[in-house]
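If you are new to this repository, start here. Below is one unmodified record pulled from the training split, so you can see the exact layout before writing a loader.
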Amino acid sequence: MLYRIIFIFLFFQGILSGQSLFNRWIGSNPFMGSSRSTAMGNTHLLNSTGSKNVRFNPANLGMIKSKLGFDLQVNRLSVFERWSMPVRDSFGEFLTNADYVANEFSCYGINSGLFASLNLPMIGVIGAGFHYAPLTHFTYHYSEEIRGSHSIEDGEYSSKDPIVGYQILDTEGTPMVSSLGGGIKLDVLRNIHLSIGGTINLIQSTTISDRVEVDTLYSDVTNLSTLPDINATAELLRKNFMTFSTIINLASNIQLGVSWEEGVKAITTPYSWSIDSTNGLFQYFNDNNYMVSGVNYMKPEINSFAFSYISELGQMISINFEVNRISYKGHLYLNDYNQYKFGFEYFTQMGTPIRGGLVYRTAYISAMKPVSMFTFGSGKSIGNLMVDVAGTYCFQSFSYPDLFPVEGDIRTDYDFVRDSQLHLQLALTYQF
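And here is the target side for that same chain:
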């Protein structure tokens, strides 16, 4: 079974790879939880395992049964992005969206940590842990192959639309966060247990890089942008934020959880950004100027509420719900948004968990649409070693102006962008 899980994980890594257009301003999704909780609809508050609790639910550190443990998790975030332009007939009627760019890129991340617990008579169980993981990433890679035209005489061998150059936009940067926290479990009544915990999180300093390049192969630049080449870097300085959470067990099979994660701004001096007034979207270029410099990033404030019910009638099944309120407090005109999550875990007669879930996220940019996400995964215990795999998939589409404007282009229609994201995780947890 273990070999099948590893094979499936490695197989899926080759299917898709990708990016996200607005990463440079808002970063990627800050929810990078454990493989188990990711597979269960990203319900990280009550279903995180090991050191991931330090970040998402330190109260759960007081409920860990093992005295000592450590974990290692590998993440691969992949997106396949296609840009299309509308094609019309001679009467001006719409025919189809014709693809002219297909970008693929993958971002990798590794997180790890330690956790331990101690049973104190007359007090309860005290747990503590350390976790080190990516907070977000600003990575985006865009490469467009530009074609020209060439007239040939009869009998000549040549391409009528030769490659004349490439238009490239690259941004890089992955802030890491170190988290140190602890929690305690208290026996309030016979069947009611209360756990509380807190964490301090330190965002490490990070270098953000931008590269714009118009690579011409010939002197003819008719179809190429005239933007100048750009190579710039900015340093994101250290910041810290707090996390607090509490869990109450109303019965042996019912849990309620609440958490609060502080928001924090990280700004360099100077910095610049721009929003297109016609569509409300962030823009990279305006009048042949690159509008992005420095970093103006906010790790949003996150308030979460979760409910979990475990049924032990027949085969054990766990049903979970979680709601996140993500608040930017008006930063960069971003909207506060909600995430509604459902996840389950079902154990087969062989003891193998089958995990799945759904996530619905409202839009944080007014011009964008809500996004739905499908999650899946499983796991396998080998003695004291637990192997978990998880995956998430989501798709979104939106309209956006031509990323590299060409002088003299009179096309008024926006491009149609389709963005498919696949996130895969493989986690190893060893408990003594």
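Two things worth knowing about this chain: Confidence is low (pLDDT under 50) at residues 1-19. The radius of gyration is 25 Å.
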